[in-house]
Amino acid sequence: MNPGGPLAELLKKSRRTVAFTGAGVSTLSGLRDFRGKNGLYNDLDADRIFDLAYFSINPDFYYQKTWNLLYETAGVEPSLVHRVLARWEAEGLLASVVTQNIDRLHTRAASRNVREVHGSPQSHKCLRCGKTFPFEEVKAALSFQLFGVENNPDRLTAPRCPCGGVIKPEITFFGEALPSQAWDAAFHDFENCSLVLVLGSSLQVQPAASLPARAAQRGVPLVIVNAGTTPLDGLARLRADDLEEVFMPFERSGP
Description:
Largest sheet: 6 strands, parallel
Number of strands: 9
Number of domains: 2
Order of helices and strands: HEHHHHEHEEEHEHEHEEH
Distance between the termini: 11 Å
Strand order of the largest sheet: 3-2-1-7-8-9
Strand content: 15-25%
CATH topology of the largest domain: Rossmann fold
Shape: elongated
Radius of gyration: 19 Å
CATH class of the largest domain: Alpha Beta
Helix content: 25-40%
């Protein structure tokens, strides 16, 4: 696939293209995915990291396990997929990005219309009084803690609000509803799109995975680029495995 190929033609003809992204676009940036061969969920107790019930009794665990994944990400930059999608949006070729990811990389790549349907650590909230805290403030508090614990993330404790309440990221944990504003915007995007790009997602996590499925059932052309199989492969107009191979020519010369 190249800039003059089938994907480029679909992009040029589409009046409203929506990208649906999963962990695969961020593994190109060096981040681990969750369910892949070397995914986070292969680790002992990893399923507790984003479990609301477990956070309520041991909030320290989340911060200990996600410090290197979400907070101290020096050297982790948006991948070529993030960069190309941001440029396509700026050029009017892409309406929005609906992402399952919580790593903020689409925003860092300068995409503007990003629907983070699983939430984001960009904002944190006190579970007692509801006060919100920006990502950088929480990261600074955790960094300060690390000086006193010999830079060992396993000794981090959950930051506290001045009221004494525990601060939780506004990520959708298991046991929580999806953020309504992001979900409503994503639903509207898929109801009105004319082309769907599924990038780096196995389309296994519901209800987010239902969005591309609804569009495909309406006859909207579907492009899937993912290393593994997905339930919608049989409906895809174009299907490829390697994100880097597909997107590298677009970064060099555009569609």
